Each structure stands twice: as C-alpha cells, then as structure tokens.
What we know:
The protein is an alpha/beta fold. It has one domain: Diaminopimelate Epimerase, Chain A, domain 1 (Roll). Helices cover about 45% and strands about 15% of the residues. It is built from six helices and four strands. A four-stranded mixed beta sheet has the order 1-2-3-4. Helix 4 (about 120-135) packs antiparallel against helix 6 (about 150-160). The chain starts with a helix and ends in an 8-residue tail after the last helix.
Amino acid sequence: MLRLLALLVWFPLAAFAQSYPEPLSDTVNDYADLLPPEAEARVVATLQAAREETGVHIVLATIISQGDYGGDARFADFATGWLNAWGIGDASWNDGVLILVARDDREMRIVLGGGFDVIWDGRAQRVIDTAMLPAFRDDETMRAAWRMGCNRPLSDLRGPMLPKRR
C-alpha cells in the first residue's frame, strides 16, 4: 500500500519535470537555428578563446520556446536548471556560464554558476540590456544581433568577472 501511495505521489511530479536536450557541442547549441553558419563559427571561436584565456566554460543555447522542454516556471529558474543539468563549467569552481535565448518567448538569460559573486549577476543583466535586447527591440532576429559580433557581450562578461585561473 505504501508503494502504491508513493507511486501516486511521484507520477504527477514526474510529469512536471523539465527535460533538457542533449548538448550539440560544448560551445554553441543553436536549437532555434537563429545563427547563420558564419556567425556561429565566430561565436564558437570567441567562446573557445574565452575558455582558453580564463578557463571558464561559456555556452550559448538558443531555443524556440521554453514550453518545448516542459518548462512553465520562471525563465530564470528554467535557465539555471539547464546550466546545472548540462554541468557547464568546472565543478570544483562552479564557474560555468550559460547564455540562453528563447526566441518565441522573447526571453534571454545569462546564468552564472554559483562560484561567481552575486554582484556579477548585475553585470550579466547589463550585457543583456545593452548588447542583446536592443536588437530584439528593433525587431531584429538573433542573426542580426550576432552579425554585429558577439565580442561585446562576451568581453563584458569575461573582463574582470572571469579572472584567469591558470
């Protein structure tokens, strides 16, 4: 009887679980197909250079909608769950960074691992506000936003926020 009760409680909770896709790469995961190949190549090169320079693992993921992955919670919680599910970053430093964009939801988030001081959340939000959102406000797609280059947002993030560990 106790097992039956446990199953009855567990099954409804399992139905609400988030499902995250398997990573396509350790740098860019463009599930929404927002980046043209040349822009994606530039982003990959920039993310790899940042990792070599700082030791910090940064991943960009684009999706059509959070709902495609069973997500109905706050986007920030969904993005944090994604960062943790993929295990981005060095576990001993807890220093991974996920840039997640949901096109149809018109949401984006830069999630920082718990190893970052809370002050850097504000810096990540400024990157979104000043470098990413303006392109969306002008009704441009992510293609246009990245056409101008991803160096601005990433250099803002990796400056003093991502010190060299090596």
